[in-house]
Amino acid sequence: MKTNYLFRLLLIAIIVLTVLAILPLSLMASTSDGTWQFKALQEKLIKDGFQSDAILKFYQNPRVSFETKSVTLFFVHSEAKLNYDQFTNDWSIGQAKKYMQKHHDQLEKTEQTYGVDKQVITAIILVETGLGTTLGKRSVLNMLSFDDPVVRDDFWKNFKRKDEISKKDFQKRAIRKSAWAYKELKAFLQYTQNENFDPVTIQGSYAGALGIAQFMPTTLLAYARDGNQDGVIDLFTHADAMASIASFLKRFGWKPGIDTEKAKKIIYRYNHSDYYVNTILKIADLLS
Fold first, then answer.
1. CA pair distance 153, 68, nearest whole angstrom
2. What gap in Å lies between CA 64 and CA 146, rounded to an integer?
3. 10 Å Cβ neighbour count for 37?
4. How far apart are CA 74 and CA 187, in angstroms?
5. Which residues pair with 204 in a beta bridge?
6. Is 9 strand, coil or helix?
7. For residues 116 and 246, is the Cβ–Cβ distance under 8 A?
């Protein structure tokens, strides 16, 4: 009996070792490092023209994973609940004036180049990132890697705030977010490829916005500019952030001496919130 038992154990061990030996290394990697979550997404990106070795390398990085807690904010976030009044108090305006003094030359240059008021540029930087001090601590790559059925299913199972949204509404938003996130993810990977950045290391907001200007990747590709002429568009530098904000506003019609109503419509394109728009213009007035 004992001999037969040992023989069976030995036979099982041989079978297991044989199976492991013939398994593709890529499959073994995907099951050990968690990248099985993004299998369909990786295949889609590669099909759309991204280099397979680069995509596999990114998603095999242990820092890349789906962040359920962070993405939850996208489903329950309300722009109306944000407190923009904090940016119009005396302390915030004082800090903004110091910022304008510190970056005087670059702001003047940007205003002359694009015709966009330096006060408006500063106001946007103040509200978006506290003058470049609050840039977000979430992985942009992680936040935008949502267009994968395994990820979406796993997200709903672990969604801790089901009392705030029905499953039906969640599914509707998930479908919309998947299409949106994939478009932004492609733009993000294209941007990092263009500028030779490692996408795994770039951090931003819960929605995937990045840099001092908090541009989404598609906006970045279309409107971001190299403000300091160093050959790299880096929205984590003040000069490039200023030029990019000005480039965006100019593209939608900003001109020197623009009237208030037109200014409101253009700033609304930056952030679809009347509360945000009115705050930006109020700050700009206080800085004049």
1. 11
2. 12
3. 18
4. 19
5. 138, 210
6. helix
7. yes
Calculate the CA 160 to chain-centre distance: 22
| Token pair belonging to 21 | 């030996």
- Using an 8 Å Cβ cutoff, are 200 and 139 in contact? yes
- Indicate the pTM of the whole model: 0.81
Q: State the residue for tokens 């940016």.
A: 87
| Per-residue pLDDT of the chain in tens (288 residues, 90 and over written 9) | 444 544 454 554 444 444 444 444 333 333 344 455 688 999 999 999 999 999 999 999 999 987 666 566 665 555 545 788 899 999 999 999 999 999 999 999 999 999 999 999 999 999 999 999 999 999 999 989 988 877 777 776 766 666 667 777 777 777 888 899 999 999 999 999 999 999 999 999 988 999 999 999 999 999 999 999 999 999 999 999 999 999 999 999 999 999 999 999 999 999 999 999 999 999 999 999
Tell me the CA end-to-end span of the chain in Å, nearest whole number: 93
Give 136's contacts (C-beta < 8 A, 6+ positions apart): 203, 204, 205, 206, 209, 210, 214
Contacts of 23 (CB under 8 A, 6+ apart): none
User: By C-alpha distance, which of 15, 232, 237, 229 is closest to 113?
Assistant: 229
Residue with tokens 């000069």: 239
